[in-house]
Design brief:
By secondary structure, the chain is an all-alpha fold. Helices cover 69% and strands 0% of the residues. The protein has one domain. Helix 1 (5-23) runs antiparallel to helix 2 (28-44).
Amino acid sequence: MSLTNRREDLLIAVALTEFLVHYEQADPKLAEQAWQLATDRLLEYDVEPCEAVDTLEIG
């Protein structure tokens, strides 16, 4: 199964958000950069962070 660019970008955004959650206290600056990258990808497809997993139908 080949991933579409949209699906791939949304999966990356979800992974970056997970990174943020797990590393926010250990490295706040890096976590903030991960969050910025995630939101950039979500904005490109007009998807809210809370909708990303539902949009991917993986949760």
